[in-house]
Amino acid sequence: MLRVGLTGGIGCGKSTVARIFADAGVPVIDTDIIAHELVAPGSPLLTKVVRTFGKDLLHCDGSLDRSRLREQVFADPDKRGQLESLLHPAIRDEMIRRAESVQKSYAILVIPLLVEKGWQGLVDRVLVVDCPPSLQLQRTISRDDTDERQARAILASQASREERLAVADDVIPNSGTLDKLRQQVHDLHRFYLRLAGN
C-alpha cells in the first residue's frame, strides 16, 4: 500500500484537502484526530499531561482545555518540547498501527509536523498543501478565533514554507477557489491510484 504523507503549515488547508480525499473513498489517517483520541477524558496520556502541566487544564467534564494548553506551550519552547515528548511517540505508534490495517491501494496520512519531526521515512510520498504565509496568518486568526500574536507564535514554531517545499514530492497550491482545490485533489487521486497499481 502506498502511504502519502499530507502536510502543510497551519491555515494552509490540510483538513479540507484530507476531506476531499476521504470523499473520494481514500482512507485518511489524521494525527490530529489521533492526538485528540489519545487524550480523551480518563485516558492514561491525559493523566500524564495534567500531571506535567497542571489540573487547571481540565474542563469541569474532565476534558482537556486545548486553548489553555496551547497558550502555555506556544509561550514556552521548553513546555512545547515536554508536551511533544509525551504525545508524539504514542501518536506515531497509533498512526503506524492504523496504516498497517488499511486494505486499499493507498492512504493519506495527515501529519502537520511531518517535517519538524523528520517523519518522511514513514511515508512513500510527501504531499504539501501550500499557500503564502500572509494567507496562513489571516486564515488562522479567523478560523481559530485567536489573536495575531498567538497565530504568529504558532507559525514561527513550525517548519518554514521553504523547508516543507524542499521535501515535497507533490504540492497543492491553495490560494484559489474550492473548486480549483477539488480539481487538484482529484488529479492527484488518479495519479496515486496509478502509482499504487504499479
Automatic annotation (TrEMBL):
UniProt-annotated location(s): Cytoplasm
InterPro entries named in the record: Depp_CoAkinase (IPR001977), P-loop_NTPase (IPR027417)
MF terms in GO: ATP binding; dephospho-CoA kinase activity
PROSITE patterns, A to Z: DPCK
Domain of life according to the entry: Bacteria
Binding-site list for ATP: G11, C12, G13, K14, S15, T16
Single GO biological process annotation from the record: coenzyme A biosynthetic process
Keywords, alphabetical: ATP-binding, Coenzyme A biosynthesis, Cytoplasm, Kinase, Nucleotide-binding, Transferase
Pfam families according to UniProt: CoaE
Pathways involved: Cofactor biosynthesis; coenzyme A biosynthesis; CoA from (R)-pantothenate: step 5/5
EC number: 2.7.1.24
Cellular component GO terms held in the UniProt record: cytoplasm
EC primary class: transferase
Catalytic activity: 3'-dephospho-CoA + ATP = ADP + CoA + H(+)
Family: Belongs to the CoaE family.
HAMAP family for this protein: Dephospho_CoA_kinase
Function statement: Catalyzes the phosphorylation of the 3'-hydroxyl group of dephosphocoenzyme A to form coenzyme A.
Protein name in UniProt: Dephospho-CoA kinase
